[in-house]
């Protein structure tokens, strides 16, 4: 069966999803398809009263279903049924996602949806295995560390991998016994809505997942500042993360997890497998058109092999196949919006005007939609915004080093610390330097997230606070209580 489809034929749910029902809405933010620039839908904006309704629905669902206090295996089974239905509905979900987002249909069906299914199953299994602790105390007492769900968790997700980002939030929060009010990005809301609807069709309590659509300033702020939301889980830019912290500090302190931006280095030593390293670096900046928090956007390469590595990367950059996200042959994503392509072009143009050499790209692709050519910049000033700012596009900068110290100094970023790549055949060096790199994740001789969901992800420095994935994400969705019983 061909995966390609006509985007005009896809029926998109134009509604919020509260208490298990669509709440129709009109108007809002005009959306354009990144692949061809055509205006195709509006995203409604929920005001505070609708967020109230969603929080009340979540509380009601917890109370009537007992989701947080049932035998945990019931939660495991329900989440597995939901995962099965997502798997069965993969094509419908993928098409909804492909129309609005930058994710090509073939990648959605190969990666995003299967990974979403896996992650929901992965988190489900914690529910009846991860518990509290019986701790050593004096003989006349018994000390317990019990854990409990928070209640209603508020989740906010970005547009770059909408379905999998929703799974990162929903999987652990629900497995841990909470209900969720989630706001997807205003640019890519549709597949997340459908994902929530599938949970009800799979027999999960209505109201356990509520989706409210809207922007950050109105809907997002109403969620993070809501007194009925006990914990906030956010993925997005560092700027929005800071605004959320501020709002939470003003409206009532509560725990939060923040997964934020990055500007990750790819450090290649001369003793590396050069073909392997160049391939990983190229994929690390081309995947999703560079619109990944983990994008390896700064190549830091040993001088003696720099030209060889750059040559191989340029070759891969020249071979990419751009195309609309609804064409199964497309392997190179558009940029999300006209605004974002303009911002990226501004940074690249300014760097070139200040003397940087653009070895390839540096301009928009001559086709409809928001496509930008894979771009490689050399000879940059150390403080160039191309090196310091998260561009969130297919722009790779190159810096060279002569020894380990220089490599580590260049790899270090003053504010970001999400991930880093390290390429060397010397495993002692790999281990030694992975502990020096100031990043929440270090990949050695590979780059990008694997399907080992047990590895938590999160940032050092201003790349974040707390972790998604792994046992840590599950545990972060339960609060601990110390109980001391005199015997
Ligand atoms: P963004 O920060 O503009 O928006 C993310 C979400 O936050 C959206 O739903 C938006 O409506 C909402 N939002 C914005 N301001 C808000 C506010 N003041 N209060 C509440 N909600 C608010 O980010 P984006 O452009 O959608 O996504 C790209 C960014 O996300 C990049 O910086 C990228 O690095 C980051 N990201 C990080 C990870 C990670 O795991 N660390 C993963 C994916 C994306």
Automatic annotation (TrEMBL):
InterPro entries tied to this protein: Ald_DH/histidinol_DH, Ald_DH_C, Ald_DH_CS_CYS, Ald_DH_CS_GLU, Ald_DH_N, Aldehyde_DH_dom
Domain of life: Bacteria
Pfam families recorded: Aldedh
SUPFAM superfamilies: ALDH-like
Keyword Oxidoreductase included in the entry's annotation: yes
GO molecular function, a single term: aldehyde dehydrogenase [NAD(P)+] activity
Keyword annotations: Oxidoreductase
Catalytic residues of the enzyme: 259
Domain (Aldehyde dehydrogenase) ranges: 29-476
Keyword Repeat found: no
UniProt family annotation: Belongs to the aldehyde dehydrogenase family.
Name this protein carries in UniProt: Aldehyde dehydrogenase family protein
Organism the protein comes from: Bosea spartocytisi
